[in-house]
Specification:
By secondary structure, the protein is α+β, with helices and mostly antiparallel strands. The strands form seven sheets. Strands 2, 3, 4, 5, 8, 18 and 19 form a seven-stranded mixed β-sheet that branches. Strands 10-9-23-22-21 form a five-stranded antiparallel β-sheet, sandwiched between helices. Strands 1-6-7 form a three-stranded antiparallel β-sheet. A hairpin with a 5-residue loop joins strand 18 (455-459) and strand 19 (465-467). The longest helix has 24 residues, at 2-25.
């Protein structure tokens, strides 16, 4: 009896010691191992906010999908795998244990899983087998699986006793807009983060906060509902509404496409803005990004990048400086000569398309005299010229917020003699189409330069709305000078080089531009190639819109036919007509915005 008592005491002491080790010393480590095996944190993905147009049409949004992935822990758990393999073979787990050792059991089960998955995935069975046997914690086997397919696969896995291969919810970014505004909207990366475009610019507002759920499974891999942990709901991102209405945008895109093909141009850019608020109503460019062939199409948004020499449409900056500082008066006569002129001091040569003789300051702009504009610029001088170019927004990004926007270029250093004659007429200065459109917007808006407004409002998941207000930059010129320039610009259309921009139903003002094309690779101007443009506003007495049209290297029967007044002006008229028709049926927008620290 004493011996038996000693044996029992020793046994109970051993058990007690082992329990103490397990429950006290090893409790945290073992609990972690159990949690790793049986518990799983399920990420509940947050939807990235949608991008919509002004009227609410979806341009980009998230869609609920699933992805198929491997779980290394479950695929290597021999006891669990043996039970599933026994069910597959129709034998008991004890019998299977006697037949196969652990490596053979895992290999046989992995072969079965690979064979089943090869029937539903576009992958060879050998590749799937290697992914299942991988040492990586998990490998995603299939992405963007729709809801119906996910249910079918889950049912198949249950039927085939497959464990360690799971489906989990995720989201995929969809772009219903397709090619429309593709360079404005941008794209997201594999983590659903914005890479460029509005997706990048508004990433912080579009991105949501994922939720989480803790679930626990039994040894067969089935979820235990009674042990389901607390759910943290995801917080979805805010929706962003652009200022662009896709109905108008589609019309402008169609016009841009036709102009590009009809003129066989290298590129065509059309921008339409609302001058009082800086709102971008439409922006189109060709070539553009083809979403089906992104690597074979351009990734350059020509509205905000690839600056060019604007030519005569830049002359309003020279005139604004001269008028604002009383270097000239509107009715003053300027001798534009007989087509050709050489400065007696700087020895620079200029020419016009026709002999213009004596012209008023207005006539210099109306007939686009290079000679007359140079003589006016001599009164303005270098410092004042650079100051007003800066005032009108050149040499700096507009602040539209899109990645890839370029600032353009101005020579702020030492000027050569040719620079004094070239910059006032739009050479030796590089601008983007959006910069030029905003500069003319300042003339239309009483001299107030506005920051371009691409985002109209942000709608939060809870329903709150944040409207993005117009933002004045500064007073580019006085309101009196702006009014004088608008009168001059109307004269360009009525009696000058821009007659083809005229509309019967509304008064229009604008300016033509034709620039010799500079090849940066050959570092010289190419004979017979030009950039043509027209930028203007309507109605001229109360401008509701500003439109710029630019064609790079358009083709015609002869180089004499390649002129902004011949090619770009009619396109401008077509865009303005479409836009005014559209504005007549859309909601009223704010009309005027006062400048900060400047004249209204």
């Amino acid at each position: 009896m004493l011996v038996l008592l000693f044996v029992l005491l020793a046994g109970f002491s051993l058990v007690t010691w082992r329990l103490a080790v397990i429950q006290i010393k090893e409790s945290q480590r073992l609990a972690a191992l159990a949690a790793k095996k049986y518990q799983r944190h399920i990420v509940l993905p947050a939807h990235r906010g949608a991008i919509k147009d002004l009227s609410g049409e979806y341009l980009a949004h998230d869609e609920d999908v699933h992805e198929l992935y491997t779980d290394r822990t479950h695929l290597r758990e021999v006891v669990t795998v043996r039970h599933h393999l026994a069910a597959i073979r129709g034998v008991k787990a004890v019998e299977l244990r006697e037949q196969l050792d652990e490596p053979e059991t895992l290999a046989a089960y992995h072969d079965h899983v690979a064979k089943v998955l090869a029937g539903i995935l576009p992958k060879p069975e050998e590749e799937i087998r290697s992914q299942i046997a991988s040492d990586k914690p998990e490998i995603v086997l299939a992405k963007q699986v729709d809801e119906e397919t996910s249910k079918q696969w889950s049912a198949l896995f249950k039927e085939q006793h497959i464990f360690g291969i799971h489906m989990r919810p995720t989201v995929a970014r969809r772009f219903p807009a397709q090619d429309r505004l593709s360079l404005v909207l941008g794209v997201t990366d594999t983590a659903n983060k914005g890479r460029w475009g509005v997706e990048k610019y508004m990433d912080a507002r579009l991105t949501g906060i994922p939720g989480e759920q803790l679930i626990e499974r039994d040894k067969s891999g089935h979820e235990l509902p009674s042990y389901r942990g607390q759910v943290t709901d995801p917080q979805h991102g805010s929706d962003v509404h652009l200022t662009i209405d896709m109905q108008l945008q589609d019309n402008v895109e169609a016009i841009c496409e036709r102009a590009w093909k009809a003129n066989n141009a290298r590129r065509v850019v059309i921008v339409v803005t609302e001058p009082a608020t800086g709102t971008v109503l439409a922006m189109a460019a060709r070539p553009h990004r083809d979403v089906d062939n992104p690597d074979e199409s351009t990734w350059t948004n020509h509205v905000i990048a690839a600056p060019y020499e604007p030519g005569s449409i830049f002359k309003v900056v020279t005139l604004a400086a001269a008028l604002d500082n009383r270097k000239v008066t509107p009715g003053e006569m300027i001798d534009c000569g007989n087509m050709y002129y050489e400065d007696p001091v700087r020895k620079v040569k200029l020419s016009d398309d026709e002999p213009l003789g004596m012209q008023t300051v207005k006539g210099v702009l109306v007939h686009s005299s290079n000679i007359g504009m140079y003589k006016i610029s001599k009164r303005v001088g270098k410092e004042m010229m650079l100051d007003y170019a800066t005032r009108f927004g050149f040499g700096a990004p507009t602040g539209i917020g899109l990645v890839g926007e370029e600032a353009g270029r101005m020579n702020t250093g030492k000027w050569s003699d040719p620079t004094y004659s070239r910059m006032p007429i739009g050479y030796e200065v590089n601008v983007t189409p959006l910069q030029m459109c905003m500069a003319y917007g300042a003339i239309a808006n009483g001299g107030v330069l506005m920051k371009p407004r691409l985002i109209d409002r942000i709608v939060k998941p809870g329903g709150g709305t944040e409207v993005i207000p117009p933002q004045p930059v500064w007073q580019a010129c006085s309101s009196k000078t702006a009014a004088t320039l608008r009168d001059f610009l109307e004269g360009v259309v009525v009696e000058g080089t821009g007659k083809r921009a005229a509309l019967a139903e509304v008064r229009v003002g604008g300016k033509t531009g034709t620039t010799r094309r500079y090849d940066p690779e050959k570092k010289r101007y190419i004979d017979g190639t030009y950039l043509t443009s027209f930028v203007g506003m309507a109605p001229i007495d109360d401008p509701r819109l500003v439109c710029l049209v630019m064609l790079d290297d358009p083709k015609a029967e002869s180089s004499a036919m390649v002129r902004g007044g011949r090619i770009a002006a009619p396109i401008f008229a077509e865009v303005v007509r479409e836009t005014l028709d559209h504005l007549a049926i859309r909601h009223e927008r704010p009309i005027k915005v006062a400048a900060k620290g400047g004249e209204p």
